[in-house]
Structures are given as C-alpha cells and as structure tokens.
Amino acid sequence: MTRIATRTRPELSFEALVRTGLAALAALIFIMASGLVSPAHAQDAANAVAAAAAPVAEAAPEAAKLVATLPDKVVDKGDVTWMMVSTLLVLLMIVPGLALFYGGLVRAKNMLSMLMQVSTVMVIGMVTWMLWGYSLSFTSGGELDSFIGGFDRLFLNGAGLDADGNPVLVATFSTGVYIPELVFVVFQMTFAAITAALVLGGVAERMKFAAVVLFAVLWPLLSYYPMAHMVWWWPGPDGLAAASAQGDSFTTGLIWSFGALDFAGGTVVHINAGIAALVGCIILGARSGYRNEPMPPHSLVMTFIGAGLLWVGWFGFNAGSNLESNYYAILAMANTFIATAAAGLSWVLYEWVTRKRPSMLGLASGIVAGLVAVTPAAGFAGPMGALILGLVVSPACIFFCSVVKSALKYDDSLDAFGIHGIGGIIGAIGTGIVVSPALGGAGIVDYTKCFDEAGKILAVCPAATYDMGTQVIAQLKGVLVTVAWSGVASAIVFFIIKYTIGLKASVDDQEEGLDIAEHGERAYHL
Prior knowledge:
It is a single chain. This protein is 58% helix and 2% strand. The radius of gyration is 22 Å and the shape is globular. The protein has 16 helices and three strands.
C-alpha cells in the first residue's frame, strides 16, 4: 500500500513547527532502531504482492551508467472498480460493523454512547485525513522521511486531475500498473478512520465524549500517520526498479527499510490501536464498579451482527490492499476466509475443553482475532499458512484477555489490546514464517533486480532469496518499533487530554450511563 511522490515538497511556513513536534518521538525510535538494524533495504508486496529487500547495486562507472526505461502507465477499469468496492466494504466495517460489535459488548445504558463515539471518531478521521493526514502519510518527508511525510498533498492539493485534465496516478504493486490517486486516498482514509475507532474498545463506558473528540484529532497526528508512513512509504515498483538500475539512492519509511512485510495493517492498524488502547485504559483508570460488580455484554445479538459485518467488510480491507484485482487479491480473500474460520473454531474448542461451555461471545471474539492475525499476511501466506495463524491466535488472545488482564488488573473494557494488540503481534511475526514458498507462501519479489541489461523495467520481477531467520528478525524489528512508537505517542495524547479538558466521566455519569449523561438520549425505550 503505497504511492509515488511526483511533486516537489512546497515550503510552508508552519511545516517546521509540525516536524519539530514529531522530531523528539522520531529520534527516540531511531536511536532504538539503530541498535537493532544493520543497513537494510525495503521488501514488501509485488505481483506476489511482495517486495524484496536487497542491496542497491553499486553504480557502474559514469560512462557506462544505465538509464532506466520505464514502462507505460496502464490503468485497468477492473482494478479501479475493485478499489471503489473495497473502500465501501471497509466503511461497512466501521458503521455499522464495529459500532454494533462494540455496542453489543457494553451495558445497555452505554449503547448509544458507543455508537456515537465510533461514528464521531470515524467522521473526524475522514475530514482530517483529507486535510492533512494523507499528505503526512503518503508524501516525501524530506529530512524526516523515515518517520513522517510532508505537505505535498495538504488539502489534497494536486491529488485529483493534472493540468491536462487527466487523473493523477499512483503506483500499485506491479510495474507499469497504476490507479487514480483519489481512489487510493479514500481507500486509505477508511483505514485511518477505523484504527482510531478501534482504540475505543479499551476505554469504553467511561471516557468523556469531548475527550474522544480531541483524541480523534491528536492521536492520528502523533501515531497513525507516522506509522502508515514508516510501514507503507516507498518509491513504488517502477521507481524502485529504476533507482536500482541507475544506481541511484532512494528513501523509504523506517519499517519498510527493515524489510518488514505488512500486507494490510497488522502493525499500522492493529498493533498500533491495541497498544493505544492498553495505554489509554491504564491512564484513564477503570470503570466505576469494575471488579466489584458484573458488567456483562447487554446484547450478544448485536455483537454477532457486528462480527458478521466486520468479516464481510474485511475482504475489502485485506483483498483491497492488493490495489489490483488479480490473483493476489484472490489469495488475500481466500486467506481471510480460512484464517478467520480457523480462529473462530479454535476459540470455541478452547472454551469447550477448558470451560465445558462454548460461548457466542467466544466465537465472535475468535472471528475478530482471526481477521486481525491474517491482516499482515493476507497476500503473503498460502491458505494452509493462514489456517495455522488462525488456529494459533485464539489461545494466545484468550490468555491475554483473561489471565493477563486479571493478573494485572487493567480495565481493557472490550479487549482491544487482548485481541487487536496481541493478535496483531502474532500475525506480524507469523507473516515472516508463512510467506515462505516452502510452506506454500507467495514468497518475496525483488524490485531491485527488476530490469534487464539495457535498463528496461521488467513486466515480471524475479523472486528474491528467502531466509526465514532474516525475515522473522525484520518482522520483530517492525513490531518493536510499532509498540514503542504507539506507546509513547498514545501516552502523550492521553496525558494532554487528561490535563486539559479531562479524560474520564464522573462516577455519577458512569452510574447513570453515558447515553443520558453525555447525549440526553437512550438506545432503548422498553
């Protein structure tokens, strides 16, 4: 998931201020990462929706330097249509999918509040994405390009039609294949919107609505946009192949440079949101009456409906991340079926064996855990690799949602950390294993060798040499940076809110229910 920057970064008077605000956080992560990382280059998705990390070839003597021949840019109506459909599917994940899933898990007096919070975070996320989020995520960031983008696309400047009235194009993962930039903008917009909304599961039933609104503005600025840039920013297949052919240097996001693979957001979305939920629930504190009174879900029917809508929408999330309607979109779709089914089954069997009663809540939770785990591996794993991820992730999530949470006494209300954080970590690390061709995975394609002796960019790029140890280490580096960045950024945001407008609803408001206390409405009149 990436684009090629095509414009020179404009000099805006306030750019230095924004970048300075991120510099301290970036420096902390860079210092940590520099101790882990030897010089590396990007590897991620290609035709096999994978791109290889490989050293850039040394430039030949000046007289013999190749001049790369780029392919014609081709736009396929099928790809464009699939991206439009995928964008709508991800919207379905948020409203009503996530809203109903979370809403059913809270008590009846907070149902409407949860619907409001998810929906409000979504609409704020969409507006801010169009104004500045897209630019900070998917343009060149100059001296901070490893961590954050710039202002080339501020207010979507230049992202529509060019001077000749033709759509501005962005790269996919195949050389010569492009899509209109605007469809990429709105597709990625839905990712930014749902990620911030996922965090609400950790702070449900006691965070003030005003605090939620401020969180929806600040948290993506410090956490989501930098993470999206670090994981998904690269020169594109044509740009990377051309730079390699000519011996030119190129820049990528920090986590991309590790060679870490993340097909659809295991790090950017799930680990990022899961860690933020954990940090938020600790800083916010527990709900009034937590551990002293029962707080069961008020409607598992709503939760089941939400889980089903999430599963359907997730096909746009995963298969849409291929950016093309080809075999690897089909592979992502197949894996989204099998990993999810395996995780749901695994959760049910675990409860049946250990507690003698398999639960509907457990099945719904397992479905989401499977979706989370397969997200980074969707276009990389073979179906049997996806099956293993699904079977493995549920027991791990159960352990964190019950044993660890109980032992440490934090109130992760709807288990956002236990499922999204832990499931995302398992999926991200597991991707380094299941991508192996020997295990049925798609393997990794090497863009840095995707040219012939004359410098012509190839239509089909060669496969890279896969080494499981190297790849798993790259995945671990990506996970560690994500955990550290999200943890620090989220703490900053929650403390800013806490010491300005306040985070937590009063005990009286919590007892009355946030539906009435915050919104003057009830979800139900029975």
